[in-house]
Amino acid sequence: MDKTIAITGGGAGIGRAAALHFHGLGWRVAVLDTDAEALKELAELLPKKRCLTVRSDVGKEAQVRRAFARIEAWLGDDPLDCLVNNAGIADPYCGPLEDLALADWQRWIDASLTAAFLCSRAALPLLRRSSGASIVNVSSTRALMSEPETFAYAAAKGGLDAFTHALAVTLGPQVRANAVLPGWIETGPWQKESKRSDPHHSKKARAQHPAGRVGRADDIAQAIEWLASAGFVTGQRIVVDGGMTVKMIYDA
């Protein structure tokens, strides 16, 4: 039986790279995103029988309920083998703390942490049909280290890490749960056509990484693949950042 993966925020960036990567491995892919244009492009790239695209704001309960009802109908009696909670607000900067409105704070929390809760809850009956199901949460190295004025983003990703180990100890052994923490990842080539770019990084930018380059979205897709298949790994945070967070950088 073919395996199936559901990816939130799958229209662009890391989510798009993951969708294309898993499709290339022979998986069926369900992609959730708010961007209709990006979903349409992705649907045109992948065979309809092996790809389902669903427009959904996964930070909103009613929309998540409808999205997973569509996924269940698409699956029939088949299981969902992996859920990737990737959705979130890409821009981490929220401005000075004293100017941060509660509604704006909540947008960051809902887009990442609340969305992961809602989708994990909705997906659980489908995941429990599988003999080797897993959840992979896409967190960030900003859960471990911060830049100025990234309060809400850092809090959402830190919460996602904690949610991950709570899932692991609660849902195991039926469902494993892990988090991948991307560092500096270039997503320009994995955007929809109207937003696509192929930036060139400076020597200084590359030198910040012991691996010698800035990360690519498909680096994270490969990490997700490993976590989806690593049957004795659960409750873990896997940092994928080219070594950036372990290198001391002094401003001379």
Can you walk me through this structure?
The protein has one domain (4-246): Rossmann fold, CATH 3.40.50. Helices cover 40% and strands 17% of the residues. It has 252 residues and is α/β, with parallel strands linked by helices. The protein is globular, with a radius of gyration of 18 Å. It has a seven-stranded parallel sheet with strand order 3-2-1-4-5-6-9, sandwiched between helices. It has a two-stranded parallel sheet with strand order 7-8. It is built from seven helices and nine strands; from the N terminus they run E-H-E-H-E-H-E-H-E-H-E-E-H-E-H-E. InterPro entries: NAD(P)-bd_dom_sf, Sc_DH/Rdtase_CS, SDR_fam. Its EC number is 1.1.1.47. Residues 189-214 are annotated as: Disordered.
Give the helix/strand layout.
Layout: E1 4-8, H1 13-24, E2 28-33, H2 36-45, E3 51-55, H3 61-75, E4 82-85, H4 102-127, E5 133-138, H5 151-171, E6 175-182, E7 185-186, H6 203-207, E8 215-216, H7 217-229, E9 237-240
Parallel strand pairs: 1-2, 1-4, 2-3, 4-5, 5-6, 6-9, 7-8
EC number: 1.1.1.47
GO molecular function, one term: glucose 1-dehydrogenase [NAD(P)+] activity
Family: Belongs to the short-chain dehydrogenases/reductases (SDR) family.
Output the strand order for the largest sheet.
Answer: 3-2-1-4-5-6-9
Strand content: 15-25%
Structural class: alpha/beta
| Individual helix count | 7
Average pLDDT for all residues: 93
**Strand segment tally:** 9
The CATH homologous superfamily is called: NAD(P)-binding Rossmann-like Domain
Main sheet makeup: 7 strands, parallel
Poorly predicted regions are none
Task: Give the CA-based shape.
Answer: globular
CATH fold descriptor: Rossmann fold
Distance between the termini: 57 Å
CATH architecture: 3-Layer(aba) Sandwich
Write down the CATH class: Alpha Beta
Question: Rg, please?
Answer: 18 Å
How many structural units, i.e. domains?
1
What's the helix-strand series? Answer: EHEHEHEHEHEEHEHE
Helical coverage, percent range: 40-55%
